[in-house]
Amino acid sequence: MNGRRTMGNDTSASAIAAKAVFAGFLALTVAGCSTLGAAGPTGGAIRDADSEENYVGQGIEIVELDGSALSRLEQYARASEFAEVFTQTPPSVEDIGYGDVLDIAIWEAPPAVLFGATAVNSGIGAAPEVAAFSGIPQQVVGEEGTVNVPFVGPVKVLGRKVSDVERSIVRSLRGRAHDPQAIVRLVRNETTVTVLGEVAQSRRMPLSARGERVLDAVASAGGTRNPVDRSIVQITRGREVVAMPLQRVVSDPMQNVQLFPNDIVTVLHQPFSFVALGAVRQSAEVPFDGSGLTLAEALGRVGGLNDARANVKGVFVFRLEDRDALGAGVDASVRKTADGRVPVIYRLDLSDPASLFAMQDFAIQDDDVLYVSTAPGADLQRFVSTISSAAFSVIGITNALSSGDN
Fold first, then answer.
1. Residue 358: enclosing H or E segment and its boundaries?
2. Are the C-beta atoms of residues 289 and 272 closer than 8 Å to each other?
3. How far apart (Å, rounded) are the C-alpha atoms in residues 95 and 159?
4. Same domain for 370 and 350
5. Are residues 163 and 201 in the same domain?
């Protein structure tokens, strides 16, 4: 009897101990249920990122990806293209500029008065006639913008066409020379464009009356060192600096704009990529080419949403956006980076069927972060799974204690 009673007491003690272990573990699990793990902030926390009570002074803009936002972004992107920025009529490259080299020849009909006589045959079977020809040494257009012509003196040539200079010389020689004629030739044109960066050979490309364009400049430098879809081309004109993917310039002839004198064309290596995080099937940094990528294509490249975890109302794109792209509705006190960009979170609700069309119109940019929040039910499911595992562990411990007592 005493033996059985002792054994019963020991079993009760084991059960009590097991229950205590289970209760303690359950308490710790419940207390730490918020730390079960997650892929990032919840959708609700992100939607409140611009509320004063939660993120005072953070300057984060939340933008719903609706029709108005997409239209505004499209207009801003179009306004930043070469074809929209560089719309001025290019100056004539035939105009003579500083540093140009001119070759001037003057002819005088017989009887020559000012220049030495030279035999000139006026035609087949005709007797030679005596005419005068004077070849003036080549001259560089200096700071004064003039060249010197015998019996004429300094002639203003800066900003004038060669035909205009020819007529000016002839007018000045009339009355001194007999029926004078002048030929002015532009030997070296210093109207150039500078091409540098990731090209085979940086150089200064002279401009001609043909009207060289962006791709002409890139080709004249031997092409790019990197693939076209991994390069951007930048035009610097005065204080205006605009860059575009080289692939866009190749595919859209409107962007292949005509260059101006003293333009700087810079080719840069740009490996475009975005980062996918959260409740997607594959978190990764994903490269894409310069032809562009939509949000729908971006989700497709990471395998789409994780059906078991994703919150369809919580698809977000984090971006440092140009302030002008957000329109007039941005708070004047919004936080800005040194280059004038602001932190923006674009939100898409995939439970709305219209969002599937918005995904196809929203363009992913380099360095974007695509994040899909975890559904609240997924956290609950993870919590229940953790409690179940803990319960089975305690049952196993209890059984082990009971077997040991027996």
1. helix 355-361
2. yes
3. 5
4. yes
5. no
CA dist 372 and 339 (Å) reads: 28
Total count of residues recorded for the chain: 406
- For residue 182, pLDDT beyond 80: yes
- Same domain for 113 and 176: yes
Provide the pLDDT confidence category of residue 91 given band limits of 50, 70 and 90: confident
What are the tens digits of pLDDT across the range 94-112? 788 888 899 999 888 877 6
CA 260/CA 90 separation, integer angstroms: 6
CATH number of the structural domain spanning residue 294:
3.10.560.10
* Domain co-membership, 141 together with 223: no
48 and 70 fall within a common domain: yes
> Which one of 154, 188, 222 terminates a domain?
188
- Please count the CA atoms within 13 angstroms of the CA of 103 that sit on its side-chain side: 6
Six token digits for residue 72: 């505004």
Enter the tokens of residue 310.
């994703």
**Separation between Cα atoms, residue 160 and residue 105, nearest integer Å:** 18
| Domain-located, residue 18 | no
Indicate if 166 and 265 belong to the same structural domain: no
Cβ atoms of 298 and 305 within 8 Å: the answer is no
Dihedral pair phi/psi, residue 337, rounded to 5°: -85, 175
Alpha helices (runs of H) in 242-329, residue ranges in sequence order:
246-251, 295-301
350, 295: one domain: yes
Q: Count CA atoms closer than 13 A to 201's CA, side-chain side.
A: 6
Q: Which of 47-56, 72-81, 284-293 has the lowest mean pLDDT?
A: 47-56
Average pLDDT of 169-181? 87
Give the residue from 188, 214, 248 where a domain finishes.
188
d(CA 175, CA 189): 33
Q: Is the pLDDT of residue 377 over 80?
A: no
Q: How many domains does the chain have?
A: 3
Which strands, in side-by-side order, build the sheet including 180-188? 117-120, 129-140, 101-108, 180-188
pLDDT given for residue 405 in this prediction: 57
Q: Tell me which residue range forms the domain holding 326.
A: 43-80+272-379
- Cα–Cα distance between 323 and 341 in angstroms, integer? 6
Q: Residue 79 is encoded by which pair of tokens?
A: 């306004």
Running DSSP on this structure, what letter comes out for residue 154? E
Within a domain: residue 226?
A: yes
With contact defined as beta carbons under 8 Å apart, do 244 and 85 qualify? Answer: no
Please tell me the distance from the alpha carbon of residue 259 to that of residue 265, in angstroms, as a whole number.
Answer: 9
